Amino acid sequence: MGYWLTQARTVQADSVISRFDPRFWTVNFPRPMMASVVTTAPDALRVDAVFYRKSDLAGLIWEAEDNIDHPLLAYETARDFRDCVLSFRWRSDGVRTLDAIDGPTLTIEGRDADGAPRAWYVRLWNYAIGTARDAQVTLDFAHLVGGFALPQEADPVWAGDIDRMFISLVAPGYTEGDDGLLADPAEGWCELSGIACAGAGAVLAIGDAIVPEHAMRIASGYDDSYHLTPARLLRNAFQLGYRGLIDHYVGMSHYFRLQANGPDLYVSLTGGALNAACAAWHRDFSRRARALGYDVIWSLSYELFDQYCWNDWKQRAWDGSPALTGWEPPSTLLSPAHTGAMAYLRAVAVAFIALARESGMPAKFQVGEPWWWVTADGRPCLYDDAAKAAFGDDPVEIASVRGTLDDDQTALLDTAGALLAQSTAALIDALVAAFTYVETYLLAYLPSVLDPAAPEIRRANLPTGWAAPAFDVLQLEDYDWVTRGNSGASAAARAAATARLGYPEAEQHYLSGFVLNPEDADQWRAIEAAADAARGRVAETFVWALPQVMRDGFTHFDEETEVQAFDDILFPLALGREAEVAPGFSTAIVTSAGGHERRNASWAEARTRYDVGPGVRSEADIATLLAFFRARMGSARGFRLRDPFDGNSGAGSAIDQQIGIGDGAATRFAIVKHYGAHQRRITRPVAGSVRVAVDGDETTAFTIERGGWIALDAPPATGAAVTAGFAFDVPVRFAEDQLSVTRATFLAGAAPSVPLIELRED
What pLDDT, on the 0 to 100 scale, is given for residue 563? Predict the structure, then answer.
């Protein structure tokens, strides 16, 4: 497999779209309200909104610059709208009407003709023909005028340098600046249909590359994509080559309905489990995914946005403090012991699977990362009132799961694990009761549930009640270890999870990723490597997650096996003393008129050429050589060569070559050999020859991974030198597709020429 972090299109395919294409509008709004936008026709869109506070305002947005789509698929930046005439039919209900004060207004943000930042406010009613709820709107940007009453409040728009524009939507009870609650939550919608753009600026170029279908699957999440149309999100997934399954996390902060309790709002089942905007988005998402041939795994976790979570639903530590995640603002974890919290989760799960079945999709449901929270300092959150009652009202305190625990403490963890397993079983039972058959998945985050610093926490967070066949598929993710280079911990945890729960790898999925921050985009290298290692080992491998894939330009592709073909065997003939070894570089030299040279080295490492012909000593050798050449298909397939002049690290001791410095987290180090200030990657160490030391102390607690990597069982301390000694082979291929050997040449004592060339593998 391979990947590319795409920064911009070069020679990839382009197409065109009409400016204001419905797929590329977005929505934005403040908490606690909710809104979504979906496409209802090729020239139409619909916004659904739920308002809770008097000041709630949603914006339907068009951006002049596409900062959302993958670089291969983004539309061109076009800030000049003066040659555009936008027209559409407006219909709405449950929002301020076109003719009202604070009715739908087009806010235009950009710069005036002198380059000074400006915003203009264009009342749509001034450009509408029809009624206040159903009208034809035409906006000629060359002659557009802001202001409420025209002409007395006219504010001419200069549309030559625009960043974005948005249409505002507010509830009928809107009061600017008043954060008080509405008497009741208000649901409203608007629809723009017959959207058309005329004029010289009516068309935009857009990336239309299609990555060939590959074996990698994609995961996504509603909390990161609620502002996009499902059509836009799925266009990215499909054209980037992801097919088959989508693992879709419904999130923890945007799906719920809310009800007032005094001045605050809390999640509610009144009127249904899902708010109107979320339901509209997921109904469209499910239908479109099905039409593209996808099946969706619907993922629901025990995590909920803290601000709107009922206080008695929250897991709590011994001192009563709630379980809070590191997100800002934080989420919390629902107590598996609380009957109300668990009934709520079951209702939400049924609502989402109902949308899947409505679109004709099979019911596939994932219980996502269900666990008892552990605080940063090791305190387990087992002590909410419902949990304490379930444990017998007076459970023993566990000050930290990272210390040594006594029998009563481990027994409490076992009891907590059994309760967690019972809660997930009840969740699955509710789905089966509603839909008869549901394919079930369990997602476990290994760095938490199998934390090496807290070996007993698995009793609570990876309970044996989840053992096969409790679920159809076990899904594992370990991205913290992956991005830190701790492959030793990953391998050990996967083995432990498999042994504990009993799911064979054919019934497992692996989620590789994700990259939280764009400045850490180099982590995709480790994520791709982990996904590559998992492919073929488990049933399915996913990249987590699509919004980050789009943001960073991550482009995965399956490489043709012929390009990377390598037979991991040694060249069968010993090299004679006359064998030729010729390391070479590629250096561009420019000589000035005065005789001075400017030299640019194109390669960081030498690439060696060999002529192994002098190793051929007999007719038997010729037969062996010819058979080996045929088996390699000439230059098509690589193989190992033992270089007689440079084939080891030095003395062969564990301190021969420094390969890294510990940072307290990384366990994976590339094998290298130093030549002065330069180093050479060693990708084919000789089996059994590798010795390793950490800070001078030799260790056997490591494994050798494909590609010349040493994976230590535990991360070296910060500043500790990691060294190695080894023998190695050179990956080579035949330099030519023809091999000429004659009996006359051999009988005359002349060795045939058998040129080989070193392969770059990293």
Answer: 47
Sequence-distant contacts of 278-281: CB under 8 A, at least 24 apart: 278/34, 278/36, 278/222, 278/226, 278/254, 279/351, 279/355, 280/36, 280/38, 280/46, 280/48, 281/36, 281/38, 281/48, 281/222, 281/226, 281/230
Q: Which amino acid is at 430?
A: A
What pairs with residue 85 in β-bridges?
A: 140, 198
Distances (CA, A) of 320 to 67, 327, 468, 644: 43, 20, 35, 69
Contacts with 294 (C-beta within 8 Å, 6 or more apart), sequence order: 234, 237, 243, 244, 245, 246
DSSP bridge pairs for 205: 16
Q: Which sign, positive or negative, has the C-alpha torsion 213, 216, 222, 225?
A: negative
Buried b (16+ CB within 10 A) or exposed e, 470-504: bbbbbbbbbbebbbbbbbbbbbbbbebbbebbebe
Rounded Cα distance, 469 and 64, in Å? 52
CA–CA separation, 720 and 470 (whole Å): 44
pLDDT for the residue numbered 562: 43
Under CATH, to which class is 217-556 assigned? Answer: alpha beta
- Sorted by where each begins, the domain ranges of the chain are 3-207, 217-556, 566-644+732-758, 657-728
Condensed to tens digits (0 to 9), the pLDDT of residues 52-76 reads: 999 999 999 999 999 999 999 999 9
Quote the crossing angle between the two packed helices 276-291 and 339-358, to the nearest 10°.
40
**How high does pLDDT run on average in the chain?**
93
Pair of tokens at residue 463: 């309970």
Instruction: Tell me the whole-structure pTM to 2 decimals.
Output: 0.84
> What residues form DSSP beta bridges with 44?
41
43 or 581: which leads in pLDDT = 43
Answer yes or no: are the C-beta atoms of 46 and 23 closer than 8 Å: no
Q: CB neighbours of 404 closer than 8 A, spacing ≥ 6?
A: none
Q: What number is the average pLDDT over the span 249-261?
A: 97
Predicted confidence (pLDDT) at residue 294 exceeds the cutoff of 90: yes
DSSP for 239-285, please give it.
HTT--SEEEEE--SSSSBEEEEETTEEEEE-TT-SB-HHHHHHHHHH
For residue 179, the one-letter residue type is: D
Q: How far apart are CA 701 and CA 256, in angstroms?
A: 49
> In terms of Cα–Cα distance, which of 473, 451, 462 is closest to 402?
451
In the chain, the percentage of residues whose pLDDT exceeds 70 is 94
442 three-state secondary structure: strand
CA dist 108 and 190 (Å) reads 19
Q: Is 657 left (phi over 0), alpha (psi -120 to 50) or beta?
A: beta
